[in-house]
């Protein structure tokens, strides 16, 4: 009896690449995918139409949980929520925008299953805080009875970084490893408030000197072992740490080191 073949991951590329095709040497698909995941504030949500099974595309605001799992906030009045209630399988397309041909910019499709985050669950306060830190205006309606947060359990992802820069990724490639980081996660909110209250100038330098972004009221909106999420009004960005950190002392050290690097830039 022949062994049963493993089911392929959703979204993988067809086996049609020319023989000998290679990605450029400077292409780091994992780093680029993680940046797109953390830095993109809105994307296309693909759900399965509950009546016919047709793909249904809609626009949603997106944030991430501590491990990078996509978070959305939807109303029960919307079609995509009704679709998710019937079948949680979905995808989110996160695309970088800019001048010129839109297809010249990188984009990431994340595939998985969305599950509603119940209001009385232990995860809801953290999910709510992280989403609203990325989308403060959503606080106007996040408390309405017909709105709920949803969290994706990532199955796989597909990155298109431009010509000859495509890659299939597993969930472990994309998500942040939280092993040993419980203390860091528990103190995230306090650390963010400390940076906003006492070190807003350092955050501005992270954005302008290290990331090359334009001036603005930059603040940290999220922290995790891999890096920091930055926001300034409608602009968002990702500051990757030079090494993985798992506890508050290491976080303080890396933020000080990055501030020093920014001031010397």
Structure commentary:
With 265 residues, this protein is of the alpha+beta class. The protein has helices at residues 29-39, 79-86, 124-134, 171-174, 182-186, 188-198, 200-210, 248-264; strands spanning 42-48, 55-61, 63-64, 70-75, 89-95, 107-117, 147-160, 166-170, 219-224, 227-232, 235-240. The strands form 2 sheets. Strands 1, 2, 3, 4, 5, 6, 7 and 8 form an 8-stranded antiparallel sheet that branches. The radius of gyration is 19 Å and the shape is globular. The chain starts with 28 loop residues before the first helix and ends with a helix.
Keywords:
29% helix, 265 residues, 11 strands, single chain
Briefly summarize what is shown.
By secondary structure, this protein is α+β, with helices and mostly antiparallel strands.
